[in-house]
Specification:
Length: 58
């Protein structure tokens, strides 16, 4: 009965992200993480600056 649950994990292990993590070098991973965090930071700054502008208009 429990073997079903163990088997259901396999698709995750073969996902593109898992393959990338397993096959890429630490340098490649660092580059991807850096790009993701840069984008998140830009989005966050945009939200913060828009919120600040909005609060000054009132």
């Amino acid at each position: 009965m429990r073997s079903d649950k163990v088997g259901s994990v396999k698709p995750l292990a073969s996902s593109p992200l898992a393959r990338f993590v397993n096959q890429s070098t630490p340098e490649e991973q660092a580059e991807v993480y850096r790009r993701v965090f840069e984008k998140v930071d830009k989005d966050q700054q945009a939200v913060i600056s828009q919120a600040e502008r909005g609060s000054h208009d009132e």
